[in-house]
Amino acid sequence: MQKLVYILFSLLALIPLPLMQSIGSLLGRLGFHMASNERKRTTENVHSSKLTANDQETEKLVKAVFAETMKSGLELTIAWTRSSQHIVSLFKEVHGWEHIDAAIERQEGLLLITPHLGNYDLAGRYLSEKLPFPLTAMYRPPKISWLESVMNNGRVRDNGYTAPANMQGVKQVVRALKNQEATIVLPDQVPGEGEGVWATFFDRPAYTMTLASRLAIMPKVTTLFFCGERLPKGRGFALHIAPIEGTLTGNRQQDAQVINHNVEKWVTRFPAQYLFGYNRYKSRKAKTNS
Questions:
Q1: Does a structural domain hold residue 140?
Q2: Among 71, 38, 135, which residue's Cα sits nearest to residue 270?
Q3: In angstroms, rounded to a whole number, what is the distance separating the alpha carbons of residues 36 and 185?
Q4: CATH code at 178?
Q5: For position 289, what pLDDT does the model report?
Q6: What's the chain's Rg over C-alpha atoms?
Q7: Can you spell out the DSSP letters for 135-171?
Q8: What's the confidence (pLDDT) of residue 176?
């Protein structure tokens, strides 16, 4: 099954990017009308974000989110099967690379944080190809088990490695940072019970991971947010990199809030490209931080 899926993905990845994204837009429009539960959750999350002024703007943004989400799904075929050199060629703009150069000059590990925004798989592959040392990305196995090997084969190549989202993976990431390498963490994944704290996200309580902030306060670590923005009309992508805003103190509650505020600012920049359909507010039992 894995071999068959890889062949299928490889063939799909040959579709020119503008055409692939046009297909994604069409599938997104179909999904908006057919996936009622997903549409309801996305609409609720967009409404909670207060990024739209009225119901008409909310519906317009929700439709755009569906289209961009489907584009991201199709683009995984590129991220997992095309060469790193081809993926690098898709990035037409890079903003903020000087922050990475400064960290390398200081001989510090790089903690690279990206929300579910834009195409983080392609952006991660670009970073992996351009950095002078290995990059380790934390991941959770996909719900479809036979996709995992295809995903890992696409990510674990060249200078790229993966670490599972468990204690073993955390140790792997810490070791990479101590070795002055790079790692990627998605801060808006809902953590397991007991692995997070409650912090507001767009004015709603969200069970928030503490891993990102704990890694960020390690000695000799530079923390940067990044995003792989999808440019219009199939032109390619733009990589945006910027330092984390706010002060991390080591207080789990306060630091989780700082991370959430940063995610909010990035989502506000590219709202249509955020995965608003993700169940960010799923419950993790009582709202306590013990």
A1: yes
A2: 71
A3: 30
A4: 3.40.1130.10
A5: 43
A6: 18
A7: EEEEE---SSTTHHHHHHHHHSSTTEEEEESSHHHHH
A8: 96
Distance CA 134, CA 111 (A): 12
As a whole number of angstroms, the distance between CA 21 and CA 125 comes to 19
* Sign of the torsion angle spanned by Cα atoms 96, 98, 104, 108: negative
The three-state secondary structure class of 277 is coil
- Report pLDDT for 284: 62
Residues 118, 93: Cα–Cα separation, whole Å:
14
Structural domain range at position 225 = 83-273
Instruction: Record the tokens describing residue 161, joined without a space.
Output: 């490695």
Instruction: Give the span between the Cα atoms of 233 and 241, in whole angstroms.
Output: 23
Structural domain includes residue 266: yes
Q: How many whole angstroms separate alpha carbon 11 and alpha carbon 13?
A: 5
- Give exposure, 140-160, as e/b (b: 16+ Cβ within 10 Å): eeeeeeebeebbeebbeeebb
- Which stretches within the chain are classed as H helix? 2-12, 17-34, 36-49, 55-81, 84-89, 97-105, 120-130, 147-155, 167-178, 211-216, 252-269
CA atoms of 145 and 151, how far apart (whole Å):
10
Q: Are 197 and 253 in contact (CB under 8 A)?
A: yes
- pLDDT for residue 288: 45
**Residue partners of 73: CB distance under 8 A and separation at least 6:** 24
Indicate whether 214 belongs to any domain: yes
Q: How far is CA 70 from CA 10, 113, 256, 275, in A?
A: 18, 23, 30, 10
Is residue 242 included in any domain, yes or no? yes
Mean pLDDT per block of 10 residues along the chain (290 residues) reads 83 97 98 97 96 97 98 96 96 98 97 97 96 91 70 78 88 96 95 91 95 96 98 97 96 97 98 96 59
Name the DSSP letter for residue 219: T
pLDDT given for residue 158 in this prediction: 82
Count of structural domains within the chain: 1
